[in-house]
Amino acid sequence: MKSTFISREHNDVKFTLEFSAEEFEKAVIKAYQANKGKFSVDGFRKGKAPRTLIERHYGEDVFFEDAINDLFSQNYFNALDELNINVVDRPNADFSEIKKGEGFTVTITVTAYPEFEVKDYKGVEIAKVENAVTDEDVDKELEALQKRNARMVLAERAAKEGDTVLIDYAGFVGEEQFEGGTAERQPLKLGSNTFIPGFEEQLIGCSAGEEKDVKVTFPEEYHSEDLSGKEAVFKCKIHEVKEEELPELNDEFAKDVSEFDTLEELKKDKKEKLEKSAQERAVNEMKNAVLEKIYEANDIEIPQVMIEDEIDGMIQEFDQQLRYQGMSLDQYFQYLGKEPKDFREELREDATKKTKTRMLISAIADAEKLEAPQEDIDKEFELMAAQYKMEVEQIKSMLGSDNFALLEKDIKMRKAVDFAYDNAVIK
Predict the structure, then answer these.
(1) Residue 134: inside a domain
(2) Are residues 230 and 192 in the same domain?
(3) Nearest to 47 by CA among 35, 58, 31
(4) Other CB atoms closer than 10 Å to residue 104's CB: what's the count?
(5) Greatest CA span in the chain, whole angstroms?
(6) How many angstroms separate the CA atoms of 303 and 325, rounded?
(7) Domain for residue 124, yes or no?
(8) How far apart are CA 364 and CA 121, in angstroms?
(9) What's the pLDDT band for 153 if we cut at 50, 70, 90?
(10) Is 56 helix (H, G, I), strand (E, B) or coil?
(11) Do 410 and 263 fall into the same domain?
(12) Across residues 336-353, what is the average pLDDT?
């Protein structure tokens, strides 16, 4: 087989594969051996008829298609390597006239990965980002810790916002009780906005043992068409009113909720963790600012197929998120009255930016010859094992060998982002 590069216009590459008569004949013999059992010829058991008789009976080109497919599949990717072509789409193949005993030529047109040289990725000027941590931030952390360790106690008073009430309720539209609108001893935190708008507010001021008619109007976009937009009355009975009792912030509290002996030690630890998190956020913001500047400085003609693939991936990820919430993509489109093609167009700009940014980061990694040595890969496995509380070998087995290359590429990409950030001018 001989491969010959013809031309490249923008991202469309054209080249040829030339197969000799000898190569074609060997492929036809191979196709005959593999398929002869499929043909029936009078006087011969299936699989025993000579090739010449099968060709005479079914046509001399009977084995051509399988032979051509075999030659193409065996040699196409070798030709890509030989000609140094990185494709991003399926090829279009145009075959010359194919005759018995003669060679043939395949002219291939395929979309290739763009050729470009990333520029202006060193010395990018960005503004310094500083996220200060205040005493108020630390106090909020401690308050959240208090709330997580609060206990619910009976309140001998009327309910107020933030309390949890234990209620029975039955819902009516007119005189008719509707399905799904009844519950007994249902806990409800007032102010949580988990019930129909206007419901929770009407229970504020109610006490244990009291009965209350709660009047509401169902939203127009309510999931049940029978109830959407309708007025309803919920007959409620309040059994209990409970409030959060927060533990006192003192040394005993610190001992109960942490490994520290004093409240001051706990505060110091919270502040250090907040400062570390704030610094990480600041660095990530500055890295994103660097990437944005590099994005603006480089103009790349991106093949549409790459953008379409990115949109496909974004839709697939969104579909998975919806399924976790118990909704399908079709239901989502129906609920919003949206067409799938319109949804794709809404994603196009973001998909284009993601694709181009990824290409630029990869180009920086190549330009700086960044590598992912085995020690980096091993460290990544150790981090994943710690995160998922598994053994390293289990993680490797779950990923499989096919994903090792993706992990290696991911490490290089992160190094490229770090390189651009480390070489930025921060003002």
Answers:
(1) no
(2) yes
(3) 35
(4) 19
(5) 102
(6) 34
(7) no
(8) 8
(9) very high
(10) helix
(11) yes
(12) 94
Tell me if residue 335 falls in helix, strand or coil: helix
Q: Tell whether 239 and 270 lie within a shared domain.
A: no
* 273-283 b/e (C-beta count within 10 Å ≥ 16 → b): ebeeebeeeee
Using the structure block, give the residue that is written with the tokens 């330009």: 367
- Between 416 and 180, name the one with better pLDDT: 416
Q: Is residue 142 part of a domain?
A: no
* SS3 at position 271: helix
CB-based contact 108:92 (threshold 8 Å) = yes
Question: Given the structure tokens 């309720």, which residue do they identify?
Answer: 169
Which two tokens mark 13?
A: 């590459």
- Residues 26 and 170 reside in one and the same domain: no
- Spell out the alpha helix ranges (H) of 303-339: 304-324, 329-336
What's the CA gap between 424 and 403, in Å, rounded? 32
Closest C-alpha among 76, 137, 130, 84 to residue 108: 76
Based on its alpha-carbon atoms, the radius of gyration of the chain, rounded to whole angstroms, reads 34
User: Measured between alpha carbons, how far is 283 from 290 in angstroms, rounded to an integer?
Assistant: 10
Q: Distance between CA 340 and CA 334 in Å, rounded?
A: 10
In this structure, the answer to whether residues 88 and 16 fall within a common structural domain is yes
CB 420 within 8 A of CB 124: yes
Q: CA-to-CA distance for 351 and 405, rounded, in angstroms?
A: 23
**C-alpha closest to that of 28 among 69, 56, 88, 57:** 69
pTM: 0.78
Q: Quote the number of domains for the chain.
A: 3
- Whole-angstrom Cα distance, residue 97 to residue 103? 9
Which range among 109-123, 128-142, 183-197, 323-337 shows the weakest confidence by mean pLDDT?
323-337
Strand pairing partners for 74? Answer: none
Euclidean distance between CA atoms 405 and 270, whole angstroms: 39
Structure-token pair, residue 67: 């032979």
Closest CA to 414 of 388, 379, 382, 387: 379
Domain span at 416: 257-426
Are 68 and 27 in contact, with CB atoms under 8 Å apart? yes
Res. 377: pLDDT tops 80: yes
d(CA 84, CA 79): 8
- How high is the pLDDT of residue 180? 87
Tell me the three state secondary structure of residue 383: helix
Query: How confident is the model at residue 403, as a pLDDT?
Result: 76
